[in-house]
Amino acid sequence: MTASKIILAILITIALLFVARRASQRQVPIVTATTTYGELTLSHTCNHIFKGDNTTADLDVIVSGGLVPEDAAIALYYEPRTTIAAETTNPSARVEAITIPGHNLVYRVSVPNQGRGSEFSYRFQVEDAAGRVLATIPVEDSKDKPKQLWFRFEGPRSVVLLVGHILCMFVSFLLMVLVLLTAFEDVRNKAVRIRLGKQTLWATIILFLGTFPIGMWLEYQVYATYWTGIPFGRDITDSKALVIFIYWLVMLYLLRGSALSSDPRKDSVGATATRWIAIIGAVLSLALYLIPHSSGSF
């Protein structure tokens, strides 16, 4: 393969990873919810993510227009998050907010760290001495389905593992681009076929390292789970990684002669099929990788 094709492959890979990285770095939008009670305006800014094993979730309500009456209280209700706010098998934990010294109009609840990956729905209620609800943050849509905010605890991740993961993904996708470019050459030529097989072999090996031992350990560090995709879950990030790896593993098996023993006669497919499975594999993998990380469930 010529130097110009290798440089082209590097540039294509950098461009694709840049786009994928920008897409995966979608910031969780910060939400500010407000409500009123008499002459008072109460607001709360939801930051959602609290990182660190010892970090508490500090949830503040800022009051403007005066002090909360002495016979009223601001209370936080939180429970493990579900897809439907009204669905919960456990009663909500209740904690009363207290004022911060020196900031009489800031009421805070500090929720102790509940463990990596734990996620909670919550709301604030302004209640009188009899427990009657005077106002809520966020404002309720209805009594049957109250609107909820959410927060999650995440653990710290190793910089070394993160760099290793990024390097593995870069090299594996560089090799996939090289496979794509090689597939448009004369794959009936033995040397070209062997080169494509070797590229497939190393793409599969490095993809495995980046996706499984390194990727799974990173996931455990942040969320305390090793795998949440198929067949055990429905997370898109894990699931698409598994689909990509299985395709390349099958492709490696079909090209095992060229890849493992430099003998294309031992491949399970001919030249035309080799070209198409290589093109489809590279395009499919790059398209799936462009789906943003942590973009939801399928």
How would you sum up this structure in a few lines?
With 298 residues, the protein is α+β, with helices and mostly antiparallel strands.
Written overview of the protein:
The structure is a single chain. With 298 residues, the chain is an alpha+beta fold. It has 2 domains: 3-26 and 157-289; 38-154, Immunoglobulin-like, CATH 2.60.40.2550. 42% of the residues lie in helices and 24% in strands. It is built from 6 helices and 11 strands. It has helices at residues 3-24, 159-183, 190-223, 236-254, 256-260, 271-289, and strands at 31-37, 40-46, 49-51, 57-64, 72-80, 93-96, 98-100, 103-111, 119-128, 133-137, 149-154. Strands 3, 5, 6, 9, 10 and 11 form a 6-stranded mixed beta sheet that branches. A hairpin with a 2-residue loop joins strand 7 and strand 8 (103-111). Helix 2 (159-183) packs antiparallel against helix 3 (190-223) and helix 2 runs antiparallel to helix 6. It starts with a helix and ends in a 9-residue tail after the last helix. The mean pLDDT is 89.
